Amino acid sequence: MNHPSLRHLIEPEDFTIEEIKKLVSLGEDMYKNPSKYSDICKGQILASLFYEPSTRTKFSFDSAMLRLGGNLVGFADANTSSAKKGESIADTIRVMGYYADIIVMRHPKEGAPKLASMYSEVPVINAGDGGHQHPTQTLTDLLTIQVYKGQLEGHTVAFCGDLKYGRTVHSLIRTMARFKAKKFILISPEELELPSSLKRQLQDQYDIEIQEARYIEEVVEQIDILYMTRIQKERFFNEEDYLKLKNSYILTNDKLENAKEDMIIMHPLPRVNEISYEVDSNKRAVYFEQSKLGVYVRMALISKLLEVGPYARG
Ligand code: NCD
């Protein structure tokens, strides 16, 4: 039997707007005053089960747990785990719950962390499932928007690149809709458009204007937040299609000539070649700061799910 207050984070909708806002502001406080929180997870263990490659998500979770005074177990290569011997996710999760107090899972199959949460007696966090969702990247993105734009509501947000397979886009766009975005601009090649079911959901459920474009320059002057993404090579069925699309967008300072002074450029990283290195020193580029902020919002999330520190009960 699961504990009655057991919560998981599988997709951003698992949390209310109020819960997300509280996490973002706690993340901001943790960023500014990390020492206040340095032992709230003492004696607790985080397990990270990464069945897909990762740099930022894996190590920012590790760093977050260590900065809270907790400990770590896990694997970054599933070939070193019993998955290689054919063990099911359900069995792995049952057992990992004996070894850890909270589990972070990334998996190439959509729905795998959801399945894990159904068998888990400890909180499960989805660290990215296939081309589906990436809710902790969304929390990272929201903290970045809060820090650099001062508020989460009312922005014109452009998403550029692989809107079909990009899970960071799928999670963030729905969340920005809940935060009453002013307008979405979708910039992608025809082959990599936002899935039509998601587009329909955004139109039916939220009253937000959606514009589609093929080039950044066509729409750049309208944008408050430009969210660049990598073409998701690993999700393509054949190499030829990827090669055709891989250079669809390369952001350069020239293309930003008509951008608002206070526009920000975000990217979940890793970048391949969709943002030219010269843009790194553009005052609008915040993607490295974004990856730094990911640690602090993950500290807030771990505290919430473990009910420690500001989330301690009673
Ligand atoms: C993203 C992911 O894994 O979906 N990376 C990340 O977690 N920061 C984006 C990507 O891989 O393109």
Quantity of strands, as a count: 9
Number of domains: 2
The number of distinct helices, counting runs of at least 4 residues, comes to 10
Main β-sheet description = 5 strands, parallel
Q: Output the CATH homologous superfamily of the largest domain.
A: Aspartate/ornithine carbamoyltransferase
Strand order of the largest sheet: 7-6-5-8-9
Beta-strand residue percentage: 5-15%
Query: What form results from the Cα inertia axes?
Result: globular
Rounded to an integer in angstroms, the radius of gyration calculated over CA atoms is 19 Å
- Which fold name corresponds to the CATH topology of the largest domain? Rossmann fold
Per CATH, the class of the largest domain reads Alpha Beta
Which segments are poorly predicted (pLDDT under 50) over 5 or more consecutive residues? none
SSE arrangement, N to C = HEHEHEHEHEHEHEHEHEH
First-last Cα distance: 23 Å
Give the helix proportion (percent range).
Answer: 25-40%
User: Strand pairing plus helix content: what structural class?
Assistant: alpha/beta
Give every kind of bound small molecule, once each: N-carbamoyl-L-aspartate
CATH architecture of the largest domain: 3-Layer(aba) Sandwich
- Chain-averaged pLDDT: 96
